């Protein structure tokens, strides 16, 4: 699909650095690359080189298949007790009246607003506040489940779970059992940031540690459930910190197999305490997708969160290891782009998303949260009435 060099031509290139060529050989024979290899790719793998390797893996795993889903977000609050420096939410705790804190009824009204929409998932994520405790979420999930039994509830992250289970004096396992009983289906990937304490202590000092994030996912997976993982990259971390982060994820995935998707999140510098740090380039974004694809051989999917990087880069990412584009997210009333999303008023209908994928000769497939295929759009012809107008909220959210 692209004009990248092929893996074959890379293997025949006599001018290539032998260490890089060895990595290409590993990829061509489906061998796992080491942490040292990964660091070398970050330090000296050109965009064309890492792209060719990542695309080879992507096409081996998925061919041209490119997944998206139809979901909507609920953010219970944009006020947060924690003080992550990269987050536009934490500053609001001092001016609580400038933020929102939705009630149970507010949130159920949001769910009901989608009653006639073909969405399959609600993604619930926001700031951490004391009133949103175990009892609150048990009630919320139960009410959503009762109202719309087939809607998949993807909710909260280890940041909230650590806080609410501790307050309720529950083990991770017992806390999860209660929430699963209430209707919780899966866990999104947020809150991971950078696991290494050298960085985490500077950017997210007071929320759960990297180790706690991993432990909570481990327990979730042991209960037979699936989750996603993220990295927040492109700020003060070094390439070695990224490798460390990816290494811990690959290790846990070897142990549990519970992760579905890895989602690299590009640091955006608006409206937060890290605004002095310049944002990274598109080349770095694409290299980061590609290297993640090459290193995380035990992750099925790499997802681009298009509201953060924009649709053009999201489209390009499909040649650099990405096989999933975050879904159409319908929210016509709340468009938050506090941290400086690429899409200031992000809106992407299913038709737009399908055409974006087809525009780079990939095969658009609507999936549910667990990657069951719902609709193959390869030959679909859109009628006006078919067009589902989706809007994405929350380029930047929480934990
Ligand atoms: O953990 C916060 C990030 C994450 C900024 O699992 C920022 O399907 C960039 O995890 N610049 C939450 N990023 C979002 C998230 C997510 C999004 C879409 C899909 C899924 C999924 C998960 O947003 C936070 C944090 O890493 N974030 N502030 C910022 N200034
Ligand atoms: Fe709170 Fe999450 Fe923002 Fe940190 S990233 S301040 S935990 S909402």
Can you put this structure into words, describing what you see?
With 399 residues, the chain is of the alpha/beta class. It is built from 15 helices and 11 strands. The chain has helices at 7-11, 18-28, 35-44, 47-62, 104-112, 134-147, 158-167, 172-182, 197-203, 210-222, 239-256, 282-295, 306-309, 311-317, 350-358, and strands spanning 65-68, 70-74, 121-124, 152-155, 227-233, 259-266, 301-304, 324-325, 328-329, 363-367, 373-376. The strands form 3 sheets. It has a 4-stranded parallel sheet, covered by helices on one side. It has a 4-stranded parallel sheet with strand order 5-6-7-8. β10 and β11 (373-376) form a beta hairpin. α3 runs antiparallel to α12 and α10 packs parallel to α11. The protein starts with 6 loop residues before the first helix and ends in a 23-residue tail after the last strand. Mean pLDDT is 90; it is low at 331-338 and 385-399. Bound molecules: ligand V47 and iron/sulfur cluster. Ligand V47 is lined by residues 86-87, 188-191, 193, 228, 230, 232, 263, 265, 267-268, 272, 305, 326, 339, 396-399.
């Amino acid at each position: 699909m692209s004009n990248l060099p092929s893996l074959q031509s890379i293997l025949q290139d006599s001018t290539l650095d032998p260490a890089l060529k060895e990595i290409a050989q590993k990829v061509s024979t489906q061998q796992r690359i080491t942490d040292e290899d990964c660091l070398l790719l970050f330090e000296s793998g050109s965009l064309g080189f890492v792209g060719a390797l990542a695309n080879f893996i992507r096409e081996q795993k998925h061919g041209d298949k490119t997944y998206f889903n139809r979901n909507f977000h609920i953010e219970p609050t944009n006020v947060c007790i924690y003080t992550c420096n990269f987050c536009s939410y934490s500053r609001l705790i001092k001016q609580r009246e400038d933020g929102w804190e939705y009630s149970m009824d507010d949130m159920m009204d949001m769910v009901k607003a989608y009653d006639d929409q073909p969405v399959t998932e609600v993604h619930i994520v926001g700031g951490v506040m004391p009133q949103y405790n175990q009892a609150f979420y048990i009630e919320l999930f139960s009410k959503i489940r009762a109202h719309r039994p087939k809607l998949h509830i993807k909710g909260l992250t280890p940041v909230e779970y650590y806080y609410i289970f501790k307050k309720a004096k529950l083990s991770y396992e017992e806390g999860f059992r209660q929430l699963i009983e209430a209707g919780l289906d899966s866990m999104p990937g947020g809150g991971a940031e950078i696991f290494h304490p050298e960085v985490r202590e500077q950017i997210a000092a007071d929320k759960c540690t990297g180790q706690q994030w991993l432990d909570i996912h481990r327990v979730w997976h042991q209960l037979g459930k699936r989750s996603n993982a993220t990295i927040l990259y492109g700020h003060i971390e070094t390439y070695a910190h990224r490798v460390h982060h990816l290494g811990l994820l690959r290790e846990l995935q070897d142990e549990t197999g519970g992760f579905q998707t890895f989602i690299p999140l590009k640091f955006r510098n608006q409206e937060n305490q890290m605004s002095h740090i310049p944002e990274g380039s598109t080349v770095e974004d694409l290299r980061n997708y590609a290297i993640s694809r090459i290193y995380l051989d035990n992750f099925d999917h790499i997802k681009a969160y298009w509201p953060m990087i924009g649709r053009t880069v999201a489209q390009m990412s499909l040649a650099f290891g990405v096989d999933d584009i975050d879904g159409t997210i319908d929210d016509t009333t709340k468009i938050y782009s506090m941290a400086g999303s690429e899409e200031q008023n992000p809106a992407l209908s299913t038709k737009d998303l399908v055409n974006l994928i087809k525009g780079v000769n990939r095969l658009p497939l609507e999936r549910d949260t667990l990657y069951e295929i719902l609709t193959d759009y390869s030959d679909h012809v859109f009628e006006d009435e078919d067009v589902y107008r989706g809007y994405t909220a929350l380029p930047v959210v929480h934990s």
